[in-house]
Design brief:
Distance between the termini: 17 Å
CATH architecture: Alpha-Beta Complex
Number of domains: 1
Low-confidence stretches: none
Strand order of the largest sheet: 1-3-2-4-6-5-10-11-9-7-8
């Protein structure tokens, strides 16, 4: 295994900037890794034909003395929910098979402008509907820690690519935990930014009031560096915040070297029952809290009485918005078109959507359409929005008492492929700790916190901060990460099987 693929994005960028390593060398190393292992992992749906050309151009510009971005020349994986002009954008669905966008998503355009090298598009649950990446129309992605297990979802492809050293960093999207839950089960880092802090323009919409694009990486600093590239106001996105954001990389570096934990008030939610979590997850969470406390943090029990209703509210709001957003895939303007000889436009539309959408997408469209229908809107969708407001108030009350809230990132380690695919309710409950963050629009980060004793698989701890306080998460996350890496004697991923190696 080339040492280049084991480097963090920050370390690789440092070597690129001095000329010790070329972008072509770094990109080729990752392309070789993809060729070697992705047949087993299936993290990528499409690998770029232009990556080496882009890398060569970065090397030429650097040699000419041009001032480049901090991550210039670093390879990047892109979740297939983000549209690109030079690679297909399918959102994991047959209904968009082969679709080429006429424009790049804003985050992709910003990554290109900063000199990152797109490696390819990563696998995902169809239209981001799922928690395991088993609902992709192109087959499941496998967890590099155990190929028989799920890599999380919907962004399992991005997390698996980073965990399998196929890419140093990746772009993901998070509607109810689709960055943080895959991070939890693959031993990676994932951050869901404050709603509006990163542009959604060019992200194929699932639920517009919940979706948020964010970074996936192996270290907190790497996520912060990528967040600095993709964040900020975008006039193309009507929900984009106009705030002037601080340097997230500076916040991460401060956390890694400074005494930011002393006096930090960390909230633990009273209503989050310990009994609902795998013992290894709970034990790792308690150990992380003890480590924070030993460094001077104060653990404060807080109340969030409406937190437990988050899943129920979410699975009314999300399907309702999804049924509206997916109505545009009608076989007339773009996407799959299945001809029905002698049929009407409605016949063609019905047949195309029947063959183009998978079972989970159909399930949520039906549920959302029902929730929005006459006579049921107030009872279901309207009530869910009221619960959403109560959850937002719970967070406001909590942050009046504490600086951050801590939870396990998910209830269990990675389950086996096929184990829950026929039980939607159990699949939905997997996002119990991540969903409230999206409902409230606040930022959340998952960082690796250890391995569960019962199965040796990774688990993560989630930190939640008030809206616009993403930098606080990078400081706290980097501080705990540094303590844990010291305790483990190296990064957690060094202990991964990595497709055959011993743990």
């Amino acid at each position: 295994m080339s040492e280049l693929i084991r480097m963090s994005a920050a370390d690789l960028a440092a070597r690129l900037s001095t000329g010790e390593v070329s972008s072509v060398e770094a990109t080729q190393a990752h392309l070789d890794r993809i060729a070697a292992v992705d047949g087993d992992v299936h993290a990528f749906l499409h690998v770029s034909d232009h990556a080496l050309d882009v890398a060569a151009d970065i090397d030429r510009r650097r040699a000419a003395g041009e001032q480049l971005g901090d991550l210039a020349g670093v390879p990047l994986a892109i979740k297939d929910v983000l549209v690109t002009t030079d690679m297909p954008s399918t959102s994991g669905s047959k209904i968009l098979e082969g679709f080429l966008s006429p424009y790049d998503a804003t985050v992709v355009a910003r990554a290109r402008a900063a000199g990152l090298v797109p490696l390819g598009k990563t696998n995902m649950d169809e239209f981001a509907m799922g928690s395991s990446t088993e609902h992709s129309a192109y087959g499941p992605t496998h967890n590099p820690w155990d190929l028989d297990r799920i890599p999380g979802g919907s962004g399992g492809g991005s997390a698996a690519a980073v965990a399998a050293f196929e890419a140093p960093i990746a772009l993901g999207s998070d509607t109810g935990g689709s960055i943080r839950q895959p991070a939890h089960v693959t031993g990676t880092v994932g951050l869901k930014p404050t709603y509006g802090g990163v542009s959604r323009f060019g992200a194929i919409a699932l639920a517009s009031s919940l979706d948020q694009v964010g970074p996936v990486s192996r270290t907190v600093l790497d996520s912060a560096l990528l967040h600095d590239v993709i964040g900020g106001h975008d006039p193309h996105d009507s929900t984009s915040l106009t705030d002037a954001w601080p340097s997230f990389a500076a916040a991460a570096r401060e956390g890694a070297r400074g005494d930011v934990l002393k006096g930090l008030k960390v909230g633990v939610i009273r209503e989050l029952p310990d009994s609902g979590f795998q013992e290894g997850v709970s034990a790792s969470f308690r150990a992380s809290l003890a480590l924070l406390e030993a460094q001077g943090a104060e653990i404060v029990e807080i109340s969030a009485p409406h937190f437990e209703y988050g899943v129920a509210a979410y699975y009314l709001i999300l399907p309702a918005e999804a049924s509206s957003n997916l109505a545009k895939f009608d076989s007339v303007r773009f996407g799959l078109r299945v001809d029905v000889p002698g049929g009407t436009v409605e016949d063609v539309m019905a047949r195309s959507r029947d063959l183009g959408f998978g079972d989970e997408v159909k399930r949520r469209i039906i549920l959302g359409t029902y929730a929005l229908s006459a006579g049921y809107y107030d009872a279901y969708y309207g009530s869910a929005q009221k619960v959403r407001t109560l959850i937002q108030r719970d967070f406001d009350d909590a942050f009046a008492q504490v600086d951050v809230i801590a939870t396990p990132s998910a209830p269990t380690t990675a389950f086996r492929l096929g184990e829950k695919i026929d039980d939607p309710l159990q699949m939905y409950l997997n996002d119990v700790t991540t969903i409230p963050v999206n409902l409230a629009g606040v930022p959340g980060i998952s960082i690796p916190s250890g391995l569960a004793a019962e199965d040796g698989l990774p688990v993560g701890i989630q930190f939640i901060a008030p809206a616009r306080e993403d930098a606080r998460l990078y400081r706290v996350g980097a501080a705990l990460e540094a303590l844990l890496v010291d305790e483990w004697g190296g990064p957690l991923l060094d202990r991964a099987p990595l497709l055959g190696g011993a743990r």
